[in-house]
Amino acid sequence: QVQLVESGGGLVQPGGSLSLTCAASPSTLNINAMGWYRQAPGNQRELVATITRGGYTNYADSVKGRFTISRDNAKNTVYLQMNSLKPEDTAVYYCNAVLRYSGAYYWGQGTQVTVSS
């Protein structure tokens, strides 16, 4: 059974930083793209950043220059470093993984990020 487990959310002041981690299991999974999405109350889920197995990255315009996505293919783990956080970054952040051959995709359970003074 495929599982994505996120960690690292929390409360931070504006201008602060947080780092999110998402580990996919089992370790034998052959994953193509991994990414982070977020959903604020009353809003649709939106893309934050994605990264392919080869390291090609894509970011939402709202986070470019502030967030950095990276991954460790050997560990099937994706990271999101978030700097210069703003109140509008407040949301539940979800990890996503797309399998390489089947195209099946999976979601994590979500982790809350709150940016507030």
List keywords for this structure.
117 residues; 7-stranded mixed β-sheet; 11 strands; 54% strand; globular
Chain-wise SSE layout:
Elements: E1 3-7, E2 10-12, E3 18-25, E4 31-39, E5 46-51, E6 57-59, E7 67-72, E8 77-82, E9 91-99, E10 105-107, E11 111-115
Q: Give the DSSP E fraction (strand runs of 2 or more residues).
A: over 45%
Nearest-integer average pLDDT: 96
Oligomer: single chain
Order of helices and strands: EEEEEEEEEEE
The helix content, as a percent range, equals under 10%
Uncertain spans, ≥5 residues at pLDDT below 50?
none
> What is the tally of beta strands?
11
Largest sheet composition: 7 strands, mixed
Number of helices: 0
Report Rg.
14 Å
The end-to-end span amounts to 40 Å
Structural class: mainly beta
Globally, the shape reads: globular
